[in-house]
Structure formats: C-alpha cells, structure tokens
Amino acid sequence: MKEALYYEKREQGVQCFLCPHYCNIHEGHTGLCCVRKNIEDVLYTLNYGKITSMHADPVEKKPLHYFMPGTYTFSIGSFGCNLSCPFCQNYTISKGNPKSYDYTPQDIVTLALKEQLPSISYTYSEPLIFYEYMLDTAVIAKKNGLKNIVVTNGYINPEPLHALIPSIDAMNIDLKTYDDTIYKKKLKGSLQPVLNTIETAIKHCHVEVTMLIVPGISDDLKKIEEAAIRLSEMDKNIPLHLSRYFPRYRYNEPPTELSLLQQAYDACKKHLKTVITGNV
Ligand code: SF4
Predict the structure, then answer these.
(1) What is the CATH architecture of 50-278?
(2) How far apart are CA 127 and CA 78, in angstroms?
(3) Residue 10 pLDDT more than 80?
(4) How many angstroms separate the CA atoms of 124 and 230, rounded?
C-alpha cells in the first residue's frame, strides 16, 4: 500500500480531494471508490501496483482513432471506480474483487519496451482512482520515449488533473450523459467536473470523447445534440464516439436501437467535424 496524494486530516478522519466526491473517510473505512482507505488517519491507495488486466490492444479499441493509428498499445487496469453506473461494461473489475498481480511502474515500462509497444494505456476500470500508480508509471514511460494514454470517466478535481496532464499524450474521456440530474441520480457523479476535464485536457493533449448511448440514461436526442454543441464550443475538431450499449451488470434495457444511433450521429454531425459510431 502507498500513501495517497490529495487528502487532508480532519477532526474525525481524513478528507480525499482526488475527485469531486470529496469523501470524508473515517478510520478503517474507504471512500466511495472503495480503493482509498483511512488507516490511522493516513489515506492509502489500495490498488497501487495491483494489476487486474493487461493486454496489447489496437489503439483504435480505446477508442482513439486519431492518435498513433494502426499501432498497438500496452493496456493495463486495476480495480475500483468512483462512479456507480448501473450499466457498467467493466463491472467485474470496477466493482468486483478480481484477482490482481503486482507490478511496479518500472515493471510496466520494461514490459512495454520489451514488447516494442509505443504507448501505455491506463484503462479497463477507472485509472483516475489508481492515480498515484498511473502518475508514477507515466513519468517513467515518458522518460523512456513511450506515450501515455488515459481512458477515463473524467471525474477528477482540477489540481490532480493539472499535475498529471504534462505526462499524458492522449485521453479518451467518457461523457456519460449530458443531463446533470441523471449523472447525479443514476451514476452518482455530476456533469460539470467532466466538462471541466475535457476543456482542460484539450489544451494539453490529444482528446477524443465517448458517449455510450444507453436507453433511459443518455438516449435523449436533444441532450445528445446539446452535448455536441458544447463540445464544438470547446473545439469543433474533437472526435466524438457514439457507442452502442449492450445490457451489462444491473441494467437490462435492450441494446441501443441502430436507428437511434444513426439519429444521434446525424444530430452531432451538424456541430462536430468527426463523429464515429462504435460497437455496432
Ligand atoms: S477518489 Fe475515492 S476516496 Fe477520493 S474523493 Fe473520489 S471517491 Fe472519494
């Protein structure tokens, strides 16, 4: 276990500042993400160096279509998440208690170099809540000429984001819905911090955005178009991936209708240069 960054002691317990939940964590407890624990008023990151998934993936699978296309990326993930999406596509590692294997940041970089992979992707579950491990790995990777890719829900506070981003070359950020009420009620997050992350990231690195079109969560065409307008105000060139949902975890609505995906594509294409449909 490693001591976490971004927390302060409080009269009772500690408060974590890594993400906008600002969890107050009492002795012996973890925050909402289940991977940051208060032990004797020191906050520890429980998933530091605990790798649950590791694979060489085409970079297009992240999805990133305009960053080092045609290459493979050394993809790693750990466990835990700071949102609570009922349709989670990776719930076995984000919500479960999966088997993990120990790798130091240097181990990861050495493996990527050995396999001659030009980039490392922090992905699969939510990399922002293995922040310390991702940051340590990304710094070493960069020194060794590797690129760093973050595939994330974007739910992080500005200070840790600014500290991370100089080491990051590309991000795919999930915009799970453009409805703040749904973000709050169904995903246990909120919209504005994610928009802030996108806005900051596009100033520093290559960014593509993904919207998973989930019935009852993010299938309102008016909201989808509003999202595209907001993104176009940031940068008309941001590639937007509209992904088809399939039932997973605790969500059993049928898969996204292909006709809806097409309508969403048409609505977004009015505002953004590049819209891509995926999972079809
Ligand atoms: S990173 Fe985890 S512990 Fe910290 S504020 Fe977010 S959910 Fe809470």
Answers:
(1) Alpha-Beta Barrel (3.20)
(2) 7
(3) yes
(4) 27
